Amino acid sequence: MPADSNLIVAGEAIKESLFQSLPERSKHEEFIRRAVDLLVERVVFGRSQRSAKVVEWAAPDEIKSVIDLKPREGPVSHDELLAIMADVARYSVNTGHPYFVNQLFSTVDPYGLIGQWLTDALNPSVYTYEVAPVFTLMEEEVLREMRAIVGWKDGDGDGIFCPGGSISNGYAISCARHHFYPDVKSKGVYAVPKLVLFTSELAHYSTKKMACFMGIGSDNCIMIKTDELGKMDVGDLEIKISEAINSGSTPFMVTATAGTTVFGAFDPLIPISGLCKKYNLWLHVDAAWGGGALMSKKHRHLLKGIELADSVTWNPHKLLAAPQQCSTFLVRHKNVLKEGHSSNAKYLFQKDKFYDTSYDTGDKHIQCGRRADVLKFWFMWKAKGSDGFEKHIDKLFDNAKYFLDHIKQRAGFKLVLENPECTNIMFWYVPNCLRGCENDPNYRERLHKVAPKIKERMIKEGSMMVTYQPQGNLVNFFRIVFQNSALDHKDMVYFANEFERLGSDIIV
What we know:
The protein is globular. The chain has two domains: 125-371, Aspartate Aminotransferase, domain 2 (3-Layer(aba) Sandwich); 384-504, Aspartate Aminotransferase, domain 1, CATH 3.90.1150.170. The strands form two sheets. It has a seven-stranded mixed beta sheet, with helices on both faces. Strands 1-11-12-10-9 form a five-stranded mixed beta sheet. It has 508 residues and is of the alpha/beta class. It has helices at 3-16, 25-45, 60-66, 78-91, 110-122, 133-150, 165-180, 184-187, 206-213, 234-246, 269-279, 336-341, 374-408, 443-448, 450-461, 489-503, and strands spanning 100-101, 158-162, 195-200, 221-224, 250-257, 282-286, 311-314, 327-331, 413-415, 424-429, 465-471, 474-481. The mean pLDDT is 94.
């Protein structure tokens, strides 16, 4: 057989064995290195430049025509896979871009990214010490330090990393219910009275959703009024607690918010805690967004009283800019997670192992398999130190204040809140056609149409990404959120200029 025929046969043999789930140098090294180069050059660095687009907009049919999204019976070549990677990156939103300020997450932290890559390369699942020895210990240390930062003595208590803040808030409901009614674990909702919980009308929707999911019912998640700043009205909270008791219901918890999703408002935790003590209620603080401010001596006052909480949600992937996803549930009570959720599966949590099985922490979760979300955050913390996180937070607030002060001086910008508490800045951009028309009967209706038109222009040009929404009786307004500490004051001026460029000539 000719030499070139031998090469063809060898190549076909390699191709035929590519289904095997094990990296081998002869089969995969070149592909992996080319793929990593593509990620580093075209995704990490190429897409983080201010000159890059935040998004390359394409309609669904266009994306379907460019990327073959359907699974196929046979394999494709490595070259084809690399081309697919490039197309996926091209048409995905560039969340690492400095001008992606659309949601409560952004940027691609270099140390967090490496931690995430290391996590994926190790492919761990954190439930027993024997399969995740480093990550089991790492979680305990990081969670203890976070509890200490919250203000609990010596960092006592317990906690877990969760797949998002919604699940963290669900754990709070589960722990609170089990704390007061432990029979619910075995007998279910039939063993408890009609339970009700309370949260503000501007709180994250997950509290109501999780109340529904856990059989309490969305109608029994009672919404509390907020003041003009978006903070929970403590007087209305007590009225609603009394009404619930008088109607025969049993209040058991309050979920306060430290950094609401839209307004960035911080509920008054000390008086809320006082009511919880008076009526014997569990106090949970959803600090998914605002929790990062605890890292700053200058700004942690926003969460004054959080140390009085029974439990806390804190998402490092939000204000601290850890990679998605990185969410924690922290609880003051040491054993409630284990007592409320353990099932003692003997094929996984054997008690006669050769090591201390108290390190097998997985039985306190409702999950079994669970990512090591701790590593990326721990790696960032090692790289930056607590001092670095503090500087990061302080710069975010400085940028937000600069942007706020800047647009106060510019025509066409009208603030929703004159002095927002967090780094959420909310405003209407009023185009030329509406200036001076504030008293017209259809002014609000016309203003409501402005934000969607500006959003369409910015997305199709890819110049920035900023979200908008209505809120209560407020028509559509923009909400720009700052959590990327690589931004500076010049970027704040860019945002204002861009709104003006995109919106000044709009006709509604």
